[in-house]
From TrEMBL:
It holds the Pfam family XdhC_CoxI. It comes from the Bacteria. InterPro entries: MoCofactor_Util/Proc, XdhC_CoxI. PANTHER family: ALDEHYDE OXIDOREDUCTASE MOLYBDENUM COFACTOR ASSEMBLY PROTEIN, MOLYBDENUM COFACTOR INSERTION CHAPERONE PAOD. This is Xanthine/CO dehydrogenase XdhC/CoxF family maturation factor. Residues 17-84 form the XdhC- CoxI domain.
Length: 109
């Protein structure tokens, strides 16, 4: 992830993308435990083409969140995602540092 990605405001990007007519989802960190790299309230914005801005985990779970966000854009049904070292997905997404994160993914618009 580049420093530009960290410094850009994902909510401002979402507003811009909505003005362009893109279908979007927003992922928001709602709970962390242990060594989660992003605080509660962090955002990742995803469009229907898989483009994204922001971060919910510093790269640990973004790929999995983007995949689920594409489903949310299509269905309109929000999803609650949980990743952590005690979860069977921990090794798949790389949260081997011992943290846990809950992310809410919702369609925008």
């Amino acid at each position: 992830m580049s420093i530009d990605t960290v410094l850009r405001d994902p909510l401002a990007i979402a507003e811009s993308w909505q003005a362009e007519g893109r279908s979007l989802a927003i992922a928001t960190v709602i709970e962390t435990w242990g060594s989660a790299p992003r605080p509660v309230g962090s955002h990742l914005v995803i469009d229907s083409e898989g483009n994204f801005e922001g971060s919910v985990s510093g790269g640990c779970v973004e790929g999995a969140v983007i995949t689920d966000a594409l489903d949310v854009i299509e269905s309109g049904t929000p999803k609650m995602l949980e990743f952590g070292v005690a979860d069977e997905t921990a090794w798949r997404v790389g949260l081997s540092c011992g943290g846990r994160i809950r992310v809410l993914v919702e369609r925008l618009g």
